[in-house]
Amino acid sequence: MRVEGLRSNSLLAARVEGALLAHGAVRHVRVNVITGNVLVVFDAGRTELRRLVLVIARGAVGAPSGRHRPSTDVPIPPRWHALSAAEVIARLDVNPHSGLSTEEASTRLAAGGPNRLPVPQPKSALAILSGHLTSMPVLLLGCAAGLSLLSGALVDAVVILAVVGLNAAVGYITESRVERILTSLQQTSVVPAFARRDGHDRLVAAEALVPGDIVRLSAGHEVPADLRVLEADGLALDESALTGESLPVAKWPRSTCRPEAPLAEHVNMAYASTVVAEGAGLAVVIATGSGTEVGRIRALVAETVVPSTPLERQLEGLGRRLVGASLGFCGITLGLGLLRGLPTLELLRSVISLAVAAVPEGLPAVATTTLALGVKRMMANRTLVRRLSAIEALGATTVICADKTGTLTENRMAVHGWYLGTREYWPNGSSHGHAEPDQLLSRALAVGILCNEAELDDVGNGTNGIGSATESALLAAALEYGLEYRVLRTEYLRLSLRPRADGSNWMGTVHRTPHGRRLVAVKGAPLEVLARTGRWLDGEQETPLTATTRQMVVDANARLAGSGTRVLGLAFAETDPDAGNDYDDLVWLGLVALTDPVRPGMAQAMAACRAAGIRVVMITGDQAPTAAAIYRTMAPEGDRAVRIHDAAGLSAADPATVRELVRRVDVFARVSPADKYHIVRALQADGEVVAMTGDGINDAAALRAADIGVAMGARGTDIARDVADVVLLDDDLGAIVTAVAQGRTIHTNIGKALRFLLATNFSEILVTLGALGLGLGRPMSAIQFLWINLVSDVLPALALAVEPPESDVLRRAPRDPRAELVDRAELTRIATDGAVLAASTLGVHALALARYGAGPRATTLSFSTLTAAQLMYALAGRSRVGNGATAGSGHPLLAGVVGGTLALQLATALLPSLRGLLGTVPLSASDWALVAAGVATPTLFAEIRRALGAPPAIPFIDGEGEHHAGPKATIAP
Description:
There is one protein chain. By secondary structure, this protein is an alpha+beta fold. Strands 12, 13, 16, 17, 18, 19, 20, 21 and 22 form a nine-stranded mixed sheet that branches. Strands 10-28-27-26-11-23-25-24 form an eight-stranded mixed sheet, sandwiched between helices. The radius of gyration is 36 Å and the shape is elongated.
């Protein structure tokens, strides 16, 4: 790639190299200052990030120049995780004991800007309106209005433009309301930070932090910027929002990482928007604002193109074809008129009538109103739809990529079970069901309470933890057995604490017992705790730990870990007050298994997705065994074995390999944010319509790239909500199933309405062309055609578009997203129906001409016949099998609309005001009999074809989740 601003500018070339090297996916950079070419070597498979090269390069080219230009010896930004703490301090030029001076911090703040991410602005009123005024159907209406103005038909033009305005108004009101709700979800609180300035720790706003600031971290605090950890006292971070890793990650300041290590393995770093789960630490700021990992993800999101939905693509293609067809029919009309030597004015009016007849004016209103009503129904289910077409796109979904942590699971730890001595205690087991724990479990619960720094709040059920999620889960488990942990801590006063340290994954505390002795409580990595024990407690007896007993514990630990749980070892010792080493010669208690609970209803939601023919792919940063175990708990009973893939090497795979993987893998483990993006893109390249669900920063790029992005509204991050198409306000993933049913119903009903509109408009075209070709004059005026399109067509089409869901809507296979909204077979059916409607109308018109001659009576008969016949055709269009007039009779809206519109049509021949507007005249009883005969002919034809023709074969899902084609009393989307 060539960037002209880099030619002959070595300083800017160095800055570009440094900025690109700071990105985790970049392996090598070389800038040629002679040509301005930028050569970047990414980790294999990350070609989509090439857009980021131009973003960074342009940013460097636009950097300040002249006397404000930085000196040429400014170091290239390194990969901080690969440097030692001393190297980081030296490069940032800061004394960790005194921190930055106030003056230096102000200078750096002025140079680098505040530590703030840009907040996306809501769509402007102009942007929302333009989105509803530039679609192809609306442009078609504009052309029809222009032709009407050219011919002097001002009323026609005004009515058409009124339809355009109504369509835009409905869309604007719906989308602006959604934008207001989304804006209210934005966090407005200011995150505080403890920064060391002028030798003192001060509470400052996170926005004021600059690179080089020394920051103190404590449990429960949000990390305010990207940091290199300098000191750690049992420090562990919850990085689930960024990496998807559900368990807290311990930090080791003296460690250095491989330069190419993925984000989840940066054990010496703390990144913005993560949370301190336990312990404390000291760190130095290495990046703020847009330079943080969160900022880079947001930049990548901004560069990602949002794909159009299947309905948008299909309506756009249909609109283009309608334009061509309209121009073609107008050309045919013009040619026939010239051959017959018609007067110019009459010929122009015929062309305009045909143009108005060819454009389905009701289509934009029907599509927009149907989608808006669907959005309203989803809001009643606490599901916020940001784009009107997004709800329909969910109905086309073939694959749901679900982030595990915080989406499928609750993102909180809970005790899953205990393995103590030779006994097991499970939530639904007999031991766990006792009103009071036995002596062995009581000791284990006591160790979990005492060797613990967490607190539970007093809100709600009192189980919301302050501190480590793991330690909060142990306190919550004690509460389940009626143990008051605060009382126990008061009785067993803590004397000392030994936090987790670099190289050892266990924690210990020493307490004074009510009898004056000392109690040592230890918990941590099972094998490390086991190594410090010499005895074990089997019931009430302490016996030596033999090799056989130790192997039994090791096997139990492996089994529990393989079930997808986090396992801790528990031990204790009771000694004299003057005993020596507190943490040697412990007594082994057993194991406690903790898990991130699956959200309620996930198994039912997975089963519903399977029944609907939708594949659910779980994507997580967790280890493969944990991910597989979680997936199995949600999979339908008797489901096939889980197919899992560790994504550690996914970035090095070629696109063909990735596409093959996504076809057969159920669970992707150890994925990075970029991996999620590539998985979504590979599924789309394979022809799938992908819905991506997530709540974290690490999900943002994939949410944006997916056909439909679904974010969690309650616990989700701002970035996830910013880029999503759908926001689940209650974080209920089961609402997706409801949305899928709604989307499929909307697509089916829009298909019904579209077929009705195309058939009726085609009949109007054939009536105009047939009359002109047969020398029957103009059967109807342009204003009469407009009346049919805007009154007699739109209202029944709207009624068809809001038909209730059919009973098997969630047992159909997802429709092929590449299939046309109206295929060839459907076009043949539409053409046949339109031809029958036109033939019946032309027959009535010919009889009227023979009886009355050319004039208002003949046009009134043709006008009334075509209108009434189309209304009866609407009843036949609600179902392809059974009696069209009675099908779906449980929903009387369509019948009411047809009855009301027939009454309105009768008024056009009776009310003087309407007669004056439409050019109609009163009809006699024999005239109405002729109209009835003209209406009965196409209705009878439709019923005969329905009785003789077999129902269409559409894909559906059987009880085993397999796709079949069979007879269904439904319309295939």
